[in-house]
Amino acid sequence: NIMGTFTLLEAARKNGVYFHHVSTDEVFGDLEIGAPTKFTESTAYAPSSPYSASKAGSDHLVRAWARSFGMPVTVSNCSNNYGPYQHIEKFIPRQITNILDGRTPKLYGTGEQVRDWIHVDDHNLAVLDILSHGEFGETYNIGADQKDINNREVIELICELMGRPGDYEHVADRPGHDQRYAMDATKLREELGWSPRYTNLRDGLEQTIAWYIDNRSWWSASKESVESTYASQGQ
Length: 235
What we know:
Blueprint: H1 2-15, E1 19-24, H2 50-69, E2 73-78, E3 81-82, H3 91-100, E4 106-108, E5 114-115, E6 118-119, H4 120-133, E7 139-142, E8 149-150, H5 151-161, E9 169-171, H6 186-192, H7 201-214, H8 216-232
Parallel strand pairs: 1-2, 2-7, 3-6, 4-9
Antiparallel strand pairs: 5-8
């Protein structure tokens, strides 16, 4: 995240290229479960993990290059994605492919963590809107504005949709697991006219499950390796 962003920024600077930086809600840390607050573009950074700290660092680099060299840049911070082509180490595709592979789905810890799940197609369209008519130097939050739904409810919905209701097991929680993310995407909606198409998680999950069923050859070869890595971590 640090060296890669630096390298791309220098290439863009030397070639006079507009630079859009795709970042994450994780740079803001986490929110209290049940609280009405959401992350805005002016929320202070408070990353919780080495990964999110490196993402925060990359965001700072982009803004520094804009300030120091006058580069045309925009930044977007997005909530958790799901949908086709997502690597099977990620929470939702891992559970879908576990079921398809005859394995038991795994829930990290108690599963109380809340995420503002957004379908990847909606994220892509938001980035396209920013590229097309976003204002240089601005940051835009991207989120589907879903009602708070925790990971336990997500895995139960996946199991229900795939005909295995309640068939999952609890495993060790992830280190530094943030409790709640929620994005305020008002600026993106009002200034650029974007809105998500997948406003119901059930609909998005049905489409996602169908994709992994139809594209087993895309993920099956790496499934054993992914699960072996998780097993070594007690997950």
